């Protein structure tokens, strides 16, 4: 199921026009079909394709009910612009061909359309959505993703009064605002605050988030825990259904322990492990060895 975006600016209107025309439109008798072997999936932010088995079973019974949107590549192959989930399920169902709608789009228009189409999906998880929004902004602004992230941070700093570079009045910043308004999912401010931190998640949290095992709010809480062993325990509890309120309390408890000063004897023990007796002056070395023997006897 897709979300209807708010009124579109000219940039996104063209990218979505084909989707709006075909959304919910069933396969027509005598329509164009193409062999699966000539279809080429396109890069996209979505990494997971949920319930493919169920969709494949439905396709075995009823066929593909909505055509895939494709564009010709000029060598007998066609790039999938929208409908990769149906393509994958059709392969699982054993089909040799699928109904398609062929549209003439430039490579950039196709990338934009595919990105926007994916961002309208309800089942896109927060990490995938974050990557998709950044890819869309990167495509529109003609900048690498790293520069887009930098622009968003500068906009946030100026909004908070931490900088006076007049970034918010620039054409790029206005375009960013237009894109977020058009998508209608969140403001650029909330995106910077709640979504950009997901890019720097540790790998274990990123994997859990991509799997849909934990909400992004839990991932951001767990990110605060630097000790991997402690974080692993809390992550398993979050996977098992620990509420966000309980998780926050557990994280605060772990952070208090992390900030507590280490016992002095642990520091001494670590220094002893690094100690090179051979490098000490003879008199000092003899004294240290004597003290260590006394300690060994005391602990013996």
From TrEMBL:
Give a Pfam family name: ParB_N
What molecular function does GO assign, one term? DNA binding
Task: Return the SMART domains for the record.
Answer: ParB (SM00470)
- Keywords, sorted A to Z: DNA-binding, Plasmid
The record's annotation in NCBIfam families points to: parB_part
Query: What species does this protein belong to?
Result: Thermus thermophilus (strain ATCC 27634 / DSM 579 / HB8)
Its recorded name reads ParB-like partition protein
Q: Offer a single GO CC term for the protein.
A: chromosome
Q: Which domain of life is it from?
A: Bacteria
Instruction: Enumerate the spans annotated as ParB-like N-terminal domain.
Output: 32-119
Q: Which classification does the entry list for the species?
A: Bacteria, Thermotogati, Deinococcota, Deinococci, Thermales
DNA-binding is among the record's keywords: yes
Any one GO biological process = chromosome segregation
**Family in the record:** Belongs to the ParB family.
């Amino acid at each position: 199921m897709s979300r209807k975006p708010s009124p579109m600016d000219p940039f996104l209107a063209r990218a979505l026009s084909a989707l709006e025309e075909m959304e919910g439109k069933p396969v027509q008798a005598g329509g164009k079909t193409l062999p699966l072997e000539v279809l080429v999936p396109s890069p996209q932010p979505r990494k997971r394709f949920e319930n493919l088995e169920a969709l494949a079973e439905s396709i075995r019974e009823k066929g593909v009910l909505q055509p895939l949107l494709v564009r010709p590549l000029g060598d007998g192959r066609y790039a999938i612009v929208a409908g990769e989930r149906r393509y994958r399920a059709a392969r699982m169902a054993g089909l040799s061909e699928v109904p398609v709608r062929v549209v003439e789009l430039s490579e950039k228009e196709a990338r934009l359309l595919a990105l926007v189409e994916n961002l309208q999906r309800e089942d896109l998880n927060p990490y995938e959505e974050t990557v998709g929004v950044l890819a869309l902004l990167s495509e529109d602004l003609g900048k690498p993703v790293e520069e887009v992230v930098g622009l968003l941070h500068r906009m946030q700093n100026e909004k908070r009064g931490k900088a006076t570079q007049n970034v918010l009045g620039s054409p790029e910043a206005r375009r960013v605002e237009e894109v977020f308004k058009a998508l209608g999912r969140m403001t650029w401010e909330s995106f910077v605050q709640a979504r950009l931190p997901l890019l720097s998640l540790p790998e274990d949290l990123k994997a859990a988030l991509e799997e849909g095992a934990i909400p992004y709010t839990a991932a951001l809480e767990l990110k605060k825990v630097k000790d991997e062993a402690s974080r692993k325990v809390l992550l398993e509890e979050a996977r098992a259904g620990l509420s966000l309120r309980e998780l926050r309390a557990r994280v605060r408890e772990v952070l208090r322990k992390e900030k507590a000063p280490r016992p002095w004897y642990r520091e001494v023990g670590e220094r002893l492990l690094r100690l090179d007796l051979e490098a000490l002056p003879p008199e000092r070395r003899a004294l240290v060895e004597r003290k260590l023997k006394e300690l060994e006897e005391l602990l013996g």
